[in-house]
Design brief:
The structure holds two protein chains of two kinds. Chain A is mainly α. Chain A contains 13 helices and no strands. The longest helix of chain A has 17 residues. Chain B is α/β, with parallel strands linked by helices. Chain B has 20 helices and twelve strands. The chains are: A mainly alpha, B alpha/beta. The complex binds iron/sulfur cluster (2 copies).
Chain lengths: 222, 399
């Protein structure tokens, strides 16, 4: 790692450490491997929560680079690693590192958004992450014939649910009021999330602005 | 959050837990929340009366509201397993408890946060507080349907209470939206409510489930995030695991089959279920379902969260040709209770949205699903003919 790279990764580490949750997630590491034994991702990927805790405790910039570039998106965010006898939360470190990676549009974050941006769009516009119109055979071929059945009968099945907020909903999980959607959009604006999303998912940011800016103007909001 | 001390975590497996709130490894954040209210920093939305008390991991008591709840729905449930929220609401109606199904609610957006990190603490706390303020204004107490929302909101509570600067920023956001800064006295998961009323529900049982063996999968974000707030009971698993789901199944007279990978996640992975499903499939089928079959041979898997029901249910189809032992239906504790209490399997439990064959389970429970399916087909025809626009609760209770 040359000096300029070192500087970049030292800043990534410094930014992660500025997150108040960092210090609750790392108290040094016994290297005991309890976290690895509990970790689902360690079973299927070349991934180790112990390596993350160790590298972060030692502030090893070479390992930090590898972890951010290769490991963090493999974590399942299940928090089984909180079994750690030191009170560490490697999964907690991962979410902070992911945030830093997204904020600076690091290549691993941009790559992680591949095939995922429509989900970000859905949650940021409707406030709900999934909807029944996503149940299409080409999207979920591995879920079996029930998916085809659902998409074939979707119109009437969505009306045949007595929970009123779900009536007829196909593009959101339940009916979310337009006022509520606008409030959510304003939260994304006021909290800087829109600025984070632009570099990693520019199409989502553009669609959101198109969808909500006019409505906000009509309401007299900037 | 206070750091956990190593000595507090050393537990002998043969020792009965000594539950003393004073020995809990963390401070009681709820007291700090009340102190903030006392200082005028925020409003604490009190659990309405009547409520019941249940015990948590270190012996602290948790208030569970009996009615007057704001159904804080889960996007995964409503989108893909609509019988899940519908069963929770049906159970409230069966106990004669008032509740509210809002449309001014968003999800916690935590699923996306854990999957893509395209959010930040200020946004996550603001989303939570906007929902809580909406519930407060509506006059109902939030009952959280989703396991991830439940765990995430408790993380949010830690951040809000322990970070004054963040609190100031959130207050500004809420002011601009026209809401007060409100936080609930307790974060209550629906499965805790189900657990608290399990005997009342079981008294309304119409199907004998004593021949049913269930395997229980507790949700990671229910019992691994802020575990000191999770419901435990010395009578269930000797107090070594959470008592929710299992307590309900036992109250109904079902058998609960234990299996060695109970602590493992379901393979959901938040991003994996959407973009790396080979991991989800392998983990759910091989580490969970196959182990359950080998060790307990269950008729059903009972879960308490959106992601778990989805991963464990939908992952079974594609692995079958590879010789993996699968074929166990997966439903929530609330759906199981509803079925045993005679809820319509399609109008209420909406079991047709589940992938793994549920027919053998319903038959073993003594439920005539064929007649119910015919009734439901007639509902669908009436909708298609335009005679009714949608199914209503009146159709469920009088139809
Ligand atoms: S949160 Fe991540 S690191 Fe921790 S056990 Fe789960 S998958 Fe492994
Ligand atoms: S369990 Fe904790 S102390 Fe042990 S290796 Fe993992 S992070 Fe380190």
């Amino acid at each position: 790692m040359d000096e300029s790279e070192k500087k970049v990764w030292a800043e990534v580490l410094a930014e992660a450490k500025r997150d108040p949750r960092w210090h609750h997630s790392l108290h040094g590491c016994f290297e005991c491997g309890v976290c690895v034994g509990s970790c689902p991702s360690a079973r299927y990927y070349d991934y180790s929560p112990r390596r993350i805790a160790q590298a972060m405790a030692r502030e090893d910039l070479n390992l930090l680079k590898e972890i951010v570039e290769e490991d963090i998106w493999n974590c399942s965010q299940c928090y089984a690693c909180t079994r750690c006898p030191r009170g560490n939360s490697p999964g907690g470190l991962v979410i902070i590192l992911r945030e830093v990676a997204v904020k600076h549009a690091l290549p691993s974050a941009v790559e992680a958004m591949t095939g995922y941006t429509r989900v970000i769009y859905k949650v940021m516009t409707t406030g709900t992450q999934v909807s029944s119109d996503m149940l299409q055979v080409d999207a979920f071929p591995d879920w079996g014939p029930q998916v085809a059945d659902t998409s074939k009968h979707l119109d009437e099945w969505r009306q045949a649910i007595p929970t009123a907020s779900l009536w007829g909903t196909k593009s959101s999980a339940w009916n979310v009021d337009q006022k509520t959607r606008l409030e959510l959009y304003r939260i994304w604006q006021m909290t800087g999330v829109m600025d984070w999303v632009k570099p990693v998912a520019p199409s989502v940011a553009a669609l959101l602005e198109e969808e909500f800016e006019e409505a906000l103007e009509e309401e007299g909001e900037e | 959050m206070n750091p956990v001390r190593t000595e507090d975590l050393v537990v002998s497996r043969n020792r009965r837990h000594h539950r003393d709130p004073a020995l809990a490894p963390t401070t009681d954040i709820r007291e700090e929340l009340l102190e903030l209210e006392h200082k005028g920093e925020l409003i604490v939305h009190r659990v309405p009366d009547p409520h019941v008390l249940v015990g948590t991991k270190y012996g602290r008591q948790k208030k569970i509201p009996m009615g007057n709840v704001w159904h804080h729905k889960s996007c995964g449930q409503c989108g893909h397993i609509p019988g899940y929220p519908t069963s929770i609401i049906w159970l409230h109606k069966m106990l004669g408890l008032d509740s509210y199904d809002p449309t001014n609610q968003t999800s916690c957006t935590g699923w996306n946060y854990y999957a893509s990190a395209t959010s930040n603490s200020l946004a996550q706390v603001s989303v939570a507080c906007r929902n809580f303020a909406a519930a407060y204004k509506d006059g109902f107490y939030p009952l959280i349907h989703c396991g991830t929302s439940f765990g995430h909101y408790k993380d949010v509570r830690e951040e809000l209470v322990t970070q004054p600067e963040l609190r100031r920023e959130v207050r500004k956001v809420m002011e601009k939206l026209g809401y007060p800064l409100v936080f609930p006295e307790e974060i209550v998961h629906y499965s805790e409510w189900v657990y608290a009323v399990r005997n009342k529900l079981a008294a309304l049982k119409v199907h004998d489930v004593s021949g049913i063996t269930a395997c229980v999968h507790p949700a990671c974000h229910y019992h691994k995030l802020i575990p000191e707030d999770v419901v435990y009971d010395d009578e269930i698993y000797n107090g070594e695991r959470t008592a929710v789901i299992t307590g309900l199944a036992l109250a109904f007279g079902a058998k609960v089959g234990d299996y060695s990978t109970w602590y493992d996640c379901c393979g959901f992975g938040f991003r994996h279920i959407l973009v790396s499903r080979d991991f989800t499939r392998s983990f759910a089928a091989r580490r969970k379902i196959e182990v359950m079959i080998n060790e307990a041979n269950p008729d059903v898997v009972l879960a308490q969260d959106t992601g778990c029901v989805t991963s464990l249910d939908k992952s079974q189809f594609a692995v079958k040709p590879h010789g993996v032992k699968v074929g166990v239906p997966v439903i929530s504790d609330a759906q199981f209770a509803a079925l045993a209490m005679g809820a319509h399997p399609f109008r209420v439990v909406q079991i047709h949205w589940h992938a793994t064959d549920w027919r053998p389970l319903l038959e073993k429970m003594g439920i005539d699903w064929q007649s119910a399916w015919e009734e439901f087909q007639e509902d669908l025809e009436r909708i298609k003919r335009g005679e009714i626009k949608h199914l209503e609760w009146g159709d469920v209770f009088n139809g």
